[in-house]
Amino acid sequence: MTETIKNDDYIFNYISNKSIKNIMTDEIKYFFSDKRKICMVKTDNEKIEFYGKLSDIEADLNKVPFVRTHQSYLVNCKYIKNTSYNHVELMDGAVLPVSQSKRKNIYNIFGKYRKIIEDSDY
Questions:
Q1: For the chain, is the Cβ count within 10 Å smaller at the N or the C terminus?
Q2: Mean pLDDT for the chain?
């Protein structure tokens, strides 16, 4: 089983304007993709765009509680308020889509995340 680490212990690196930049994953609400472009939405609602693949980001963040809710969305579990059949609601009221193929995985990952939060001083 892969060990889950705290969001504030992990740094995400990305390339923007030909330089490597980094951000604490705790500051990222979600990523969404549009073709080859990724948009990272931060907790202050700043949007940062860079080129890449959402699947590569998902693989890079495999030890941090992010969940793929849709082909185009990767969401930080820390900011999910509620999950439902066809969407997730974030703490700030944003509503993001859930695809049928990702539904079961969302319940599994988010459920495990909630249990970790309840069982620790996360």
A1: N
A2: 87
